[in-house]
Amino acid sequence: MADPRWLDEREFRAWLGYRRMRLLLDAQIARDLSRESGLSDPDYDVLSALTSSEDRRWRLQALADRMLWSKSRLSRHISRMEERGLVTREDCATDARGAVIVLTESGQRAIEAAAPGHVESVRRHLIDLLTPEQIDTLGDIADTVLAHLAEAQGDAGP
C-alpha cells in the first residue's frame, strides 16, 4: 500500500478553513432563519423545493434524494410540517406506496416571508464579504467538486 499523501501546510489550512467555515456559516444562517421566521433549515429546503416546482408538489422520494435524507427521515419531518399546516401529503397516482408532498397556502406564505431575511443572512455572512472574483472562484470550486462527486456517485453503481 502506498504511503498517504499528507496535506502540506497550505492544503491543510484550506481544508481546515473550509470545514470550520462551513460549520459556522451553516449554523449562523440556520440561527438567523429560525429567529426571523421560525423555520428550520430543513423546513426551508422543503418549502423552497416545492416553490421551485410549477405545480408546487414533489414526490417524497425525489425530495429525500434532493436533501440527501432517507425517505423515512423526511417522512417524519414532513409529518411535523403537516401539523403546522405548511404542507400536505397526497397518495401518488402512479405508485401506491409513494407519496406526493404539496405546498399549502400557509407554506407559500411562510417561504415568501422567510426568503428575504434568509437571502440577507447569506449576503451578510458570505456574499458581501467576498470580491466578485472570489465569488466566481467559489462558484468554480463548487462546480468542480460537485461534478467530481456526481461522477463518483455514478461510478458506485447500484
Describe it for me?
The protein has 158 residues and is mainly alpha-helical. The protein has a domain of 75 residues: Arc Repressor Mutant, subunit A. The protein is 68% helix and 11% strand. The radius of gyration is 19 Å and the shape is globular.
The string of secondary-structure elements, in order, is HHEHHEEHH
Taking pLDDT < 50 over at least 5 consecutive residues as the criterion, the unreliable ranges are none
Structural class: mainly alpha
Rg over C-alpha atoms, rounded to the nearest angstrom: 19 Å
Helix fraction bin: 55-70%
CATH uppermost class of the domain at 39-113: Mainly Alpha
CATH superfamily of the domain at 39-113: Winged helix-like DNA-binding domain superfamily/Winged helix DNA-binding domain
Quote the CATH topology of the domain at 39-113.
Arc Repressor Mutant, subunit A
**How do the strands line up in the largest sheet?**
1-3-2
Number of helices, where a helix is a run of at least 4 consecutive DSSP H or I residues: 6
Taken from the alpha-carbon principal axes, the silhouette is globular
How much strand?
A: 5-15%
Question: Major beta sheet, specifics?
Answer: 3 strands, antiparallel
Between the first and last Cα atoms, what is the distance in angstroms? 28 Å
